[in-house]
Structure formats: structure tokens, C-alpha cells
């Protein structure tokens, strides 16, 4: 097996471009092509990372942001998943709720920030509501789509083999819907971090967004860039965990079997 093939299989190839960008960024900064007051060198950002880690500020803010993100995701994701299942399995439920949900889906959830602040103030409830609303629709739509896209012939075959409704759901319908559900999961994780970034920069007294806004006030550009990079890494970590869960859950699927 060639080196390129081994890199591709290991996943290391995906990090070559980011590493090249960071190296070029460092070289350009050291050469004076990028002013430090516009974009600090990666080495300066690394120094800020080490400084904030030693003080405990970085770990504390990452913990707060992660807890907010996961709490909002758990609330919005569970409601979206339940409604997606209900509307996929029941024509009555779909007829009663889907039209209303589709109208709400077309309202940008970040446009609701002024109203959310009036409803909840600037406390944790506002951030949790925005994150939950942001992740709700990707989970809901893809769960509904997954249920509806299950091959009716497979369902009929399950009935012929004597499966009851519970067994039919867990052995045929849910496995057939899982690929679409995982697409919604991965998309929702991205929306989760995007929403949290905006929510924390508008009204927060802790978290990565708060840390970035405080750094902006004192012109600490290295800390601002560090906050952005940490958001990106947390998003990548969440996506990687979702992909791992996807591979473990869909090992039977031809598209997820290793060659």
C-alpha cells in the first residue's frame, strides 16, 4: 500500500492542509507580511493558549461553553427526534404539526435574539433556547425524511415474516432511517456551535464567546484568534465523534463497510 493510501485510510491526510496553512501563516507573520495587530502569528496564539491554560481561565470557559452546547443540543435534539419519529410514523401527527413546524423552520433562529432576550433576559435560559432551537430542525427534518424513505417493500416483508409493530420499528424502520438521522446529527452539531458563538458574544459572563469579547475590549487579538480556533477544534471533535458513532451503528450498511 502506498504512503498516500495509508494517509488517506488513517485520516491524517485531512490535517495536511491545515498544517500547511498554519506554516504559511507563521512564515508570513515572521516576514512582516501580516501585521501583528491584524493577525498574530500562530506562535503568539500558542503563547496565549499556554498562558490562559496555566491561569485556568481557558479550561473554565471551555467547560462552560461545552456544557451550554451539550445541554441545548440534548433539549432541542431530543424534541426534534421525537417529533420526527411521530410525524414519520403517523400521518395524523404529521398533518397536525408539520405545516406549522415548516413555517417556523424558515424563520432564522438567530433573528429571534432580541425577542429571546425580552423573554428570558441574558441568563442561561436564553442561550439554551437558541441552541435548542438551532439544532431542533436539522434533527427533525432528517429524522422525518429517514422514516419516510424506508423501502416499503422491506416493511411489507417484515410483516410477512410476522414481526409485530415494535419489532418492525426496531429491526426495519429505525435501521433504515439511521443514515439520514446521522446526517441531521452532524449538521445539527455544526449549528450548535454556530449558535453558541453568537449567543455568547451578545450576552454572557463566561464561556469562550465572553472570553473573546473581553479580549476584544483590551485589543488582545491573539486571544480572539485563539477563541475562534478553539471553536473550530471543538466543532471538529464533535463531528468526529458523530462519524465514529455513525460507523459503529451502521457497520451493516454497505456504504460504511471497509473495503
Model description:
This protein has 11 helices and no strands. It is mainly α and 259 residues long. The longest helix is centred in the last third of the chain and has 38 residues.
What is the count of distinct domains?
1
User: What is the string of SSEs from the N terminus onward?
Assistant: HHHHHHHHHHH
The largest sheet is:
none
CATH topology: the name is MetI-like fold
Strand content: under 5%
* Strand elements, count: 0
Q: Give the second-level CATH assignment, the architecture.
A: Orthogonal Bundle
Could you name the ranges where pLDDT drops below 50 across 5 or more consecutive residues? none
As a whole number of angstroms, the C-alpha radius of gyration is: 22 Å
Amino acid at each position: 500500500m502506498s504512503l498516500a493510501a495509508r494517509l488517506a485510510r488513517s485520516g491524517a491526510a485531512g490535517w495536511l492542509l491545515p498544517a500547511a496553512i498554519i506554516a504559511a501563516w507563521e512564515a508570513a507573520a515572521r516576514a512582516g507580511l501580516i501585521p501583528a495587530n491584524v493577525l498574530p502569528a500562530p506562535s503568539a496564539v500558542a503563547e496565549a493558549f499556554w498562558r490562559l491554560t496555566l491561569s485556568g481561565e481557558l479550561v473554565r470557559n471551555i467547560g462552560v461553553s461545552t456544557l451550554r452546547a451539550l445541554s441545548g443540543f440534548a433539549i432541542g435534539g431530543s424534541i426534534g427526534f421525537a417529533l420526527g419519529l411521530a410525524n414519520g410514523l403517523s400521518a395524523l401527527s404529521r398533518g397536525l404539526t408539520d405545516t406549522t413546524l415548516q413555517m417556523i423552520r424558515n424563520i432564522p433562529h438567530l433573528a429571534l435574539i432580541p425577542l429571546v432576550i425580552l423573554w428570558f433576559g441574558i441568563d442561561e435560559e436564553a442561550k439554551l433556547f437558541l441552541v435548542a432551537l438551532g439544532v431542533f430542525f436539522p434533527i427533525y427534518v432528517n429524522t422525518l425524511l429517514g422514516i419516510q424513505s424506508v423501502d416499503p417493500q422491506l416493511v411489507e416483508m417484515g410483516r410477512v415474516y410476522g414481526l409485530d409493530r415494535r419489532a418492525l420499528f426496531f429491526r426495519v424502520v429505525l435501521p433504515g432511517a439511521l443514515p439520514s438521522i446521522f446526517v441531521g446529527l452532524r449538521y445539527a452539531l455544526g449549528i450548535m456551535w454556530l449558535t453558541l458563538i453568537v449567543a455568547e458574544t451578545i450576552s454572557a459572563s463566561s464561556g469562550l464567546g465572553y472570553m473573546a469579547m473581553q479580549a476584544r475590549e483590551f485589543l488582545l487579538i491573539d486571544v480572539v484568534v485563539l477563541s475562534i480556533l478553539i471553536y473550530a477544534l471543538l466543532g471538529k471533535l464533535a463531528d468526529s465523534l458523530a462519524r465514529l458513532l455513525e460507523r459503529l451503528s451502521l457497520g451493516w450498511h454497505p456504504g460504511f463497510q471497509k473495503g
